[in-house]
Structures are given as structure tokens and as C-alpha cells.
UniProtKB/TrEMBL annotation:
The keyword Hydrolase does not apply. Pfam families: FAD_binding_3, Rng_hyd_C. Keywords: FAD, Flavoprotein. It comes from the Bacteria. This is FAD-binding domain-containing protein. Gene3D superfamilies: 3.30.70.2450, 3.40.30.120, FAD/NAD(P)-binding domain (3.50.50.60). GO terms for molecular function: FAD binding; oxidoreductase activity, acting on paired donors, with incorporation or reduction of molecular oxygen, NAD(P)H as one donor, and incorporation of one atom of oxygen. InterPro entries: FAD-bd, FAD/NAD-bd_sf, RIFMO-like. Residues 4-338 form the FAD-binding domain.
Amino acid sequence: MQVDYEVIIVGGGPVGMMVAGELALAKVKVCVLERLKETTPYSRALTVHPRTLEILDMRGLKAKLLERGKPISTTHFAALDTRLDFSVLDSSSNYTLIIPQHDTEKVLEEWAKSLGVEIRREEEVVAIHQDQHGVEIEASGPNGKAVLTASYVVGADGAGSIVRKQAGIPFVGKNATFTAMQGDVVLKNPPESGAPSYFNEQGLVMIVPLPKGMHRVVLIDTERMAVPKEEPVTLEELRTSLLRILGDDFGISDPFWMTRFGNTTLQAQRYREGRIFLAGDAAHIHFPAGGQGMNVGLQEAINLGWKLAAHLKGWAPDWLLDSYHTERFPINTALLTNTQMQSLLFGSSEFSPSVIALRNMVSDLLQIPEANYRLATQISAFNVQYEPVGEMPSHVLNGRRFTELNLRLENGECQNAYELFHSGSFLVLHFGSDERLDEALDWSKYKHVHVVRASLAKGAANWHDVHTALIRPDGYVAWAVSQEESNPLEAIRKGISYWCGHD
Ligand SMILES: Cc1cc2nc3c(=O)[nH]c(=O)nc-3n(C[C@H](O)[C@H](O)[C@H](O)COP(=O)(O)OP(=O)(O)OC[C@H]3O[C@@H](n4cnc5c(N)ncnc54)[C@H](O)[C@@H]3O)c2cc1C
């Protein structure tokens, strides 16, 4: 079947743009269909977390976000008084970047466009059919109906995903039990401390400073928790709730955007159906606690992109494409559990003295550095470790996040290893001077693998014994072979052919 595109992405939100960019890096012919004329100015997400900053750094995008956002060294867990300390994480991205989703989307869209992605706005997808040869998409726009074809489709079309529905993938979990409110507003007399949270028997209030002198006010009012999500929020409602919970409305006025959201917690039963994949909110939704939804969506976009590209370019090993679901599904299951736990601490079931006592106890426990660190690595996604695959010798680095190594290259220059990922290739890092590496394989057959000989310019935990490591395009260690290995070249040969197939 002659197709118009190798991949069509439905939905040009942050996740769709990221998948599109990843595919375009690998020279895949890709098109994004987005129903909106332009990126919405109303930003749901405000936080970009450490691991997301790292992967964006690998694509040369972090600096662009830093120009528009404000770093803070902590994040919250269930709006408890003790915040999670990101500053202790082993990364130069050890902070939360406060940046409106609108700005993040703009950066991703510009990147995707610069790589040649075709973005068709004001095209709403209304029907999808797949067979063994390809996928046909019907889209409706100002110029009428269009029918487009592709080898594969990625549904990045948000919570109500038509792609998920048409693919017949069940969305499984729990419906909302309460709703919360949020307003991006002007506060004439804002609280003095930066981003305070308040919790009492009447409800919860969080206040976050925004650019341009605005503030985001998030509220759970015990008397408004049963209001349906669809009912618009009014300024008067926000003012009344603030007064009821705190006895102060902070001089609230001039709402830019107000919305209501619930704790619906659902996950797609599978992330792939034939030629159709799901990513981002199309695959999972949850109470937006701890600012994680967009972050995990971007992390799965980078997981999917290179695998789908590898398949389309013909070098992917058989198991690779399905590893998208295998790797990401359990991570998102844990995410949904995490946000449900936070909802309980947020008072989803009761705002009683015993919940207040529980919150105080958890908050106290988070003052223990190890406990704080444990949760910080969860929310930052630094704890993600993919199950090692292939018959490789075991190494503590296998499956782990690739940290930002400071390398000394053969020409004596130092380089941050993340800069070697701008093109989205695999990276083989060889430490030492084993001349036989060149003969181990016909490297010229592996155009998607970048081989670098280097030494560590600065010590890094767990790397001291590494002879050679293969780093995946999404920044996880596929395998590392130790200098103690009896036949390192044989292990490397096996590891490359298992992961990188052939051109
Ligand atoms: C109140 C609130 C606060 C949040 N705060 C945070 C936070 O601080 N940090 C964080 O990480 N996450 C946060 N989130 C979650 C975050 O906003 C989402 O996880 C993120 O937007 C998901 O991105 P996406 O690209 O998957 O989907 P979306 O952003 O929903 O994008 C989907 C796109 O698909 C388009 N589309 C839909 N249907 C069609 C169709 N049929 N045809 C064509 N186009 C279509 C839509 O117009 C949209 O542009 C928050 C969510 C809420 C509700």
C-alpha cells in the first residue's frame, strides 16, 4: 500500500510534538494532525521535572526552556509542609523548572518543525481504520474532509482520545470521586512566602506565583467537591472558597483562566493495537498531583520515537517495538498509585483531624533525608530502571538512566556526554584503548550507532570498571561490559547485534 506518511501523529500537544521530533530525527516522514489553530494559551502543566529536563538536554532543548522558565530546587508531595528536595539529585538538572505548558509546547513545536515535521493544524481526526497494510485517517477541517494514510499512527490526542476509542483499547480504572478548582488570577495581596499550601478541615489551598505578576490558586473546598468537572468555575466561587477555607481572599481578581478537574484515574489496557500506538494522556490520566502527567508523557515519547523509527527503517530487532508497552506500562501503573496516594493525603475522602495528623506525620517523616530522597527520585523519575534484556553479563548500570558524564575525548577535549545525543543515535562509549574494538564488528554497518572512545574526566558512580557501554537513544544504559569480563569483545558483539540489529 502506497502511504502518504510513514507515521501520522494525532494530537499536537507536548507529547505529540515530542514523538514527531524524535521520529523526524531518524528521518521518518511524519505528520501531526492537530485540531486547534494554535497552541492553547491556557497552561495546565507548570512543572518540568529533572528527568524530563535531562532528556530535553540530550536533544539540545533544555537551554530554550531555561530561557522561559524559573528553576526552583524543590517540588511538593500532596502539598505537605516538607517539600521534596531535588537539589541532592546527581544531575545538573536537579530542580523543578516552573514554566507554563504553553511555552514548553512552543519549544517542542519549533523543534519538530525545524526537523521537517509537517504540522497540519485545524484538522480534527474523526475516524481511523487499520488493516495489515496501513492506517487510514479521516480528518475534518476548514477545507472540508481529508483522507490520509500512514504505515503507523500515534494517538497523542489527550484524555478523550479518539485514536484509543477507534482502536478499541479499553481505558480502565476509577471514575472521579471529587473535583478541585484552579484559577490563574491576579492577587492584589499575595501571601509573602513563595508557594504556600494550606490544609484545614474546610479544605486545601495551594498558591503558585506565575510569570507576569499572576498567581495560580488551586483549591479543594469540602463544600464544592461534588460539583461536576464540566461546571464552569467563577471568580466569585474562588473568592468564596478562599474566604471559607482561609478567611482571606488575597484580593483575587482578573482571572485569565479558571477550570475544574477531578481524580479520574484510568490507564489504557495496552499501548499498542496493531499499527496504532498511544502516548501521553491518551494512555493514562490521573489527578494532577505533583505535576507529573506531561513529564511522564514526554518520557514515553522519547521511549517510543526511536523504537518506531528503528522498525520503519528496517533494522529493529523483533522484540523492540513491543518493549514500548512492556517498559512504560508498569511505570505508569506506579504513577497512578502515587497520584491516588497523594489524593488521599489531599483529603479526597475526608478533611478530618485524623487526616491532618496523618499529613503532619508524613511531613515529619519526609524530614529524614533518606525518605525525602526516596520520594524525590520517584517524582523526578530518576528511579526508572528498565528490565535488562538480552543475554548480557550483569552490570549495575544495565537498564538505568544514563547520567550526565563528563568525558575526556581522544583529542583531549572534555565534553558533556549528553551533547552526544542531539542526533538521537545509539552511543557506544569505550573507555580504555582496546584496539580490537574496531575489529569486533563491522561498525560501518551500524549507521545509527555512534562510537566514542573516551575516559572519565570526572569520577562517576558505577562507571569506574566499565570497558564499553551501549546507551540507548532515549538515554538509558542498554548494557555495560566490565573490564573484568573474560571476553569483552564477544559480549560487545552479542550486545550490539541484540539491540542494534543491522542496517
Ligand atoms: C489542572 C491540571 C494541572 C496540571 N499540571 C501539570 C503539571 O504541573 N505538570 C505536568 O507534568 N502535568 C500536569 N498536568 C497534566 C498535563 O497537562 C497533561 O498530562 C499533558 O497535557 C498531556 O499532554 P498530551 O500531549 O498527552 O495531551 P494534551 O496536552 O491533552 O494534547 C492533546 C492534543 O490533541 C489534540 N486533539 C485531541 N483530539 C484530537 C482530534 N480528534 N484530532 C486532532 N487533534 C486532537 C488536542 O487539541 C491537544 O492539542 C496537569 C493537568 C491538569 C488538568
